[in-house]
Amino acid sequence: MHRLRKNITYANVLSTIALVVALGTGTTYAATQLSRNSVGSAQIRTGAVGSHEIKNGAVHKVDIAKTTIASLKGAKGDQGPQGPAGPQGPAGASATSYFAVVSGAGEFLRGNANGGGHTAVGSGSYTVGFPTNVSGCAYTVTLGGIDATNQPPGYATVRDDGGKVGVQIYDTSGNPVDRSFHLIVAC
Questions:
Q1: Does an H or E element contain 12, and which?
Q2: Which of 1, 68, 115, 167 has the smallest number of Cβ neighbours within 10 A?
Q3: What is the arrangement of strands in the sheet containing 138-143, beginning at the earlier edge strand?
Q4: Are strands 115-118 and 125-129 parallel, antiparallel or unpaired?
Q5: Within 13 Å of residue 108, how many CA atoms lie on the same side as its CB?
Q6: Claim: this prediction has a pTM higher than 0.70
Q7: pLDDT computed for residue 55 by the predictor
């Protein structure tokens, strides 16, 4: 340390200060005096701008050459060519569907229903049976006419009736009412 102090002169200190000021001023000058868009691709040497200098999300697909995009096929967001088809999978279980069109009086007019009927006149309650137990199936019911006449509005619900489908029909006030309906059962 003592030896270093002997070699420090006023000129060394002054030149070091001048160098620091010059470097700081040059950087400040570049940051404050260069006009907007005055640096272009001609002023940037090859390889000077890398991934760390580019803000995430700043480069979009339109900014990239089409040849570069074509070489990236299969990258995130792009699809490459379709590969060969895989082997045929095993056959699934065959679907079973049942349906019925039922009059307000409980008559089966169309479909493959084979049992049930109207529970009681004015009750809006019906039971519809099919060739097999349908407890594990899905039911959907729609109020609908059996001919060209329009049906008054209302709503219907379905339930499992011990392997058959129970249907309950109501008018818009929630009172039970006898109406024709269409029932679909998918298993």
A1: helix 10-33
A2: 1
A3: 108-111, 97-102, 181-186, 138-143
A4: antiparallel
A5: 16
A6: no
A7: 77
What tokens does 50 get? 């890398």
3-state secondary structure of 155: strand
DSSP bridge partners of 111: 100
Mean per-residue pLDDT of the chain: 81
Number of residues that make up the chain: 187
Query: In the numeric block, which tokens belong to residue 71?
Result: 């070489």
| CA gap 106, 123 in Å, rounded | 11
Question: Is 124 within 8 Å of 96 (Cβ atoms)?
Answer: no
Q: Which of these ranges, 56-65, 90-99, 132-141, has the smallest mean pLDDT?
A: 56-65
Q: Are 156 and 102 in contact (CB under 8 A)?
A: no
Q: Contact, 167 vs 181, CB < 8 A?
A: yes
Rounded alpha-carbon distances, angstroms, from residue 70 to 75, 79, 83, 174: 10, 10, 18, 64
pLDDT of residue 163: 95
Predicted confidence band at 27 (pLDDT cuts at 50, 70, 90)?
A: low
